[in-house]
Amino acid sequence: MKVERVLLKDYTTLGVGGPAELWTVETREELKRATEAPYRVLGNGSNLLVLDEGVPERVIRLAGEFQTYDLRGWVGAGALLPLLVQEAARAGLSGLEGLLGIPAQVGGR
Ligand SMILES: Cc1cc2nc3c(=O)[nH]c(=O)nc-3n(C[C@H](O)[C@H](O)[C@H](O)COP(=O)(O)OP(=O)(O)OC[C@H]3O[C@@H](n4cnc5c(N)ncnc54)[C@H](O)[C@@H]3O)c2cc1C
Predict the structure, then answer these.
(1) 109 and 102 in contact (C-beta within 8 Å)?
(2) pLDDT in tens, 28-47
(3) Tens digit of pLDDT for each residue in 51-104?
(4) CATH fold label, 2-65
(5) Pocket residues for ligand 1 (CB within 6 Å)?
């Protein structure tokens, strides 16, 4: 788990957003610890307008095991949709075509 002070403008598509404490969690155990205080969740940042004053709550970003998936069974909430759609196409699986081009994580969608 990584905890750092960041400017959220570096994590949003629109490039806006002030300081926050960013918790990057890679396992369920880390997620449990991260959610023991008030928090917000950051996905891929493509649908966020964050104040210049920043965010007082901790901001959780899903990485590690949350970005993994098995196309025939389950998908982590931190998986990137564009990658997922590409992988499904390569595997000859249909059903995700409607999500093509959406720059989001699964959890944010
Ligand atoms: C260039 C561009 C093209 C787009 N095209 C489309 C399109 O074609 N169709 C479409 O529908 N949308 C589109 N969008 C909108 C955007 O991609 C969606 O709104 C997407 O759902 C945002 O996902 P994100 O992972 O970036 O979430 P963020 O912007 O990071 O977060 C959005 C919200 O979801 C919450 N959230 C994020 N992850 C989680 C999680 N794991 N658990 C709980 N809450 C979570 C956040 O707290 C926040 O409230 C587009 C956006 C851009 C910038």
Answers:
(1) yes
(2) 999 999 999 999 999 999 99
(3) 999 999 999 999 999 999 998 889 999 999 999 999 999 999 999 889 988 999
(4) 3.30.43
(5) 13, 40-48, 62, 77, 101-105, 107-109
- SS3 at position 16: coil
HEC string of 74-105 equals EECCCCEHHHHHHHHHHCCCCCCHHHCCCCCE
| pTM of the entire predicted model | 0.94
Task: Indicate the top mutation candidate among 13, 46, 55, 84 to test ligand 1's pocket, ranked by most ligand atoms within 8 A of CB.
Answer: 46
The ranges assigned to domains in the chain are: 2-65, 68-99
